[in-house]
Each structure stands twice: as C-alpha cells, then as structure tokens.
Amino acid sequence: MKSFRKLVYPYVIWAVIMIGIPMFMILLYAFTKDGNSVRNFVFTLDNFKRFFSDKVFIDVLKRSLNIAILTTVFCILFGYPAAYAMAKSRFKIQWVLLTTIPTWINMLVRTYAWRGMLDNKGLINGFLGMIGIGPIKMLETTFAVVLGMVYNFIPFMIIQIYNSLEKIDKSYFEAAADLGANRFQTFLRVTLPLSVPGIISGITLVFLPAVSSFFIPKLLGGGQYVLIGNVIENQFLTAGDWSFGSAISLIMAVIIIISMYITRQIDQKISPEGGNS
Amino acid sequence: MKKLLRRLYLLIVMIFFYLPILYTVIFSFNSSKSLSVFSGFSLQWYQKMYHNKDMMNSIFYTIAIAVLATIISTIAGTITAIGLSKSNRVLKGVVQQMNDMPVMNPDIVTAIGLLMFFSTLVIKKGFMTLLLAHVMFCIPYVILSIMPKLRSLDPNLLDAALDLGCTPMQALIKVIVPQITSGIISGALIAFTMSFDDFVISYFVTGNGINNISIMVYTMSKRINPSINALSTVIIGIITIGLIVVNVVPAIVDRAKKKKSI
What we know:
The complex is a heterodimer of chains A (277) and B (262).
Chain A: H1 9-30, H2 46-53, H3 55-88, H4 92-104, H5 107-118, H6 123-130, H7 142-167, H8 170-178, H9 183-194, H10 196-212, H11 215-221, H12 228-239, H13 242-270
Chain B: H1 2-27, H2 44-51, H3 53-85, H4 89-104, H5 107-120, H6 127-151, H7 155-163, H8 168-179, H9 181-197, H10 200-205, H11 213-220, H12 227-261
Helix pairs in contact in B: 1-12, 2-12, 3-6, 3-9, 4-6, 6-9, 7-8, 11-12
C-alpha cells in the first residue's frame, strides 16, 4: 500500500522543475534588473517604478481593465437570460451541449472568423449595404475587441449560471408562489440571489482571460490596439526585456488576485448561503 | 408566449455562437477572395493550403504534439493520481498547489515563465520545448479528472487483491486502473483538446519554424488570406469528428452490449 506513495515522487520533481522554477524566475526577474543574465542579482523596484511612472503604461492598464469589466458585464447581461431560458427548457442537455461545443473549437480560429464578418467588405457590412446602410467601420474598434471577448468567454458564464440555477430546490418557487409572490418578485427575491454563486464563478472565468488576452485585441483591434497582454508579448518577443516583462505580468497577476478577492467578498455579502461557491 | 420568447432568445444566442464557424467553413469553399459574397464553389484555397509547406507542417505538428502530449500526460497523470490517493495530506497539498498554478494563472504568465526557463537552460526552442510545455499543462487536468474516481474507490479492493496474491503492480493494473477508466478517458480527452487548441503557451515556447495551427493562423492573419479559412475548416472538422466519436461510440458500444446480454 505505502509503496504506491512513491509513484508521486517523479511528478513532484517534474512539477518543481517545470512549474516551480519558471514561476520563481518571473519573481526573480521582476525584482532584478540586469538584462537577460542571471549572474549578478541586484534587488530593485525599478521595473515597477518604470511602469507606474509612464502614462503610456497606465493608460494601457486602464484600457485593459475597462475592456475586461465591459466584457464581464456584457457576459452577465446576455448570458443570464440564456442560462435562465436553458434551465426552463425541456431540452436542457441539448442546449448545454450546443453551448459548450464552440468552446472546444480553437479560440484563435473562431476569433479570426470575426475578422471576415466585421470587415468593411465583410459579411455584416455586406448585409447592411443591401439595405442601404454603411459600410460601418467595425474592425479595429473597441466594439470589435469587446465583441470578440464576449463571443469567446460567454459560454463559460452561461454554463456557470445554468449550473447554479439547476441546483435551486424547486420547492422554493412553490413556497414563494404560496406566499403570494408574483413571477417577477420570485425572480428578484429567490432565483437571482440563489444564482449569485454561479455569476461569481462565471466572473472568475471571464474576467481572468479577458484581462490577460492578447490575441483578441491584436486580431480584432488591429496593431494599434494595445492591452496589457500585448505589452507583455512585446517585452518578451520583441524588446527582449525580461525584467520589465516579468514585472508587468506580476502587476497583472496582483490585479487579478485583488479582483477575485473583491468578487468573493461581494459573494459572501449577497448570497444567502454565505458564498460557498 | 413566454416560452416562445425564451426559445427565440436561445436561438439568437446559438446563431451568434455558430455563425462565425459556419461562415469560416462556407467561405473556405469560395471561388473568390470576397469576404461577403459567395461566388461559387471551389477548392482552390485547399489547394493553396496543400501546396503551402508551412501550413501542412503546422497541421502535422499540431496533431503530433497533441497525440504525444496526451499519451505522456495521461500515463504520468494516472500514476501520480494513484500515488496521491495513498499519500498523506502534506504531499497532496503540495502537488495540488503546484497543479493550481498553470490551471489558475493566465496562460501568458505560464508561457513567459517557460520561455525564460528554456532560454536560461539554453534548450533549443522547437518541437521538444513545445512537447514539454504541453505535457506540463496537461498533467494537472488529467490528475483533476482522475482524483474523484479514486476517492470513490473502495480501499478494501486493493487489500483483497494483495491478499489474494497480487503483486502491487498487478493490483494496480488489474484492479485499480479498470475501476478508474472513465476518469482516465475524460482526462485524456481534456488533455488532447487543451493541447490541440493551445495558442498562447505554444506561441511563446516554440521556435525554429516549428508552428502549430494556432500560431499559423495568428502569424498569417495580418493580410486577408482565405487559405486561413481552409486551415480553420480542417481544425473544425477534426474537432467535430472527435466530438462525434466521443459522443456516439459509447452509445453504440452500450447498445452492442445490451444486444449481447439479450
């Protein structure tokens, strides 16, 4: 029996090397400044100072947060009714399957498809042209970037909300009806609060990739559209400044952790079960 | 009326989901370069793709990496998960913490960590680094999908096997593995699609002209090029076939079993 424990050791070694060391290197580089050599460490906060003292980077950070928040809000607004309709439908499993299938198909491929649709000579403007409107410039706008993100991430939100709606005990609705609540009141006082855990885990699954995405802004926003992920990409693949790049990704990670913490706090305040999501 | 409204809304959502995919597939057969008018059926973009060596190589590398990464990570993940089920809390906690990192972190963070790691060790970026990276981010998912199966396993089974004279190795293969097969299969499937669809990590750790399909689409997307649609359609086709196989084959096997029992 105990001999089976030895089976874990190879993976522990592997994980320390392949997961632990790379993560440690990000920390190391973020707090040192010596180009790309590891030989002499000098602890410094210069990389962070450089980021926060440059208006360009602050603007990028603000824009990334704006886009990620917009994306999350739209995912809730459009995803909630879809999840609600799915939970009420007779063909639940089929709808869930139809919602998850697109997520199995390569994100890049699906994002690229929108380029052809949003282009000035693309499908949508072609239709608009037929009824005498446009062409409206859609590609390389904030609209296109947010649309691309909502398109990629909304299935996660829908599935999470659907799961939490499915978990609600049906007798709650009967109780609410018996106590004289109309449908709207039942939704507002029973259904919505009980589905908050689903919304919260949906936010986690949408906000995190939205903040760090760099190919959606590049494909749909054009080369000028820079989000924080694009800055990190540039630092590593073009500028070759590992220290600064590491510092930026650390800043991004901290922002993500803080926002997760805030959403969890909100969850604990709102949801009746005390947020055991 | 309300039902109709709900159905209509779901229908619109599904159109939103599937229109871009359909659009890609349909326009990959377009005879012109137009993005909005389908001017006739042709296979010219597939021909162009077929004659483009980089594109064909990217299809090969994507499949090769996905298959290898799936096999390696499934075996390693299964062994580790079985070991973990017999480990103490400290070891379990450590492995879980480690596994959480690539699962929870944004891909780009994992990617730059690996990039710096490989470059510092002066490992030549290419097929090997790509494979190592894919194995690294697949194993946690395999472990995650096997652990619940192991937890619901009766611990007496193993004791019984050992009492009846199995060596630990035999007990492992003949008793434990058959009980957790469904977990292993779903872990392998997740690993395959994670590897097959990966862009961000691959993009950072590859080099020397070794590209997968996602990197190819990304680098070629600067100009309008309908052969990207052809390449995309190939990916969509492979995944669709895979999904059908995964969903239909078990049903057929079930039916065959039922027939036999009758």
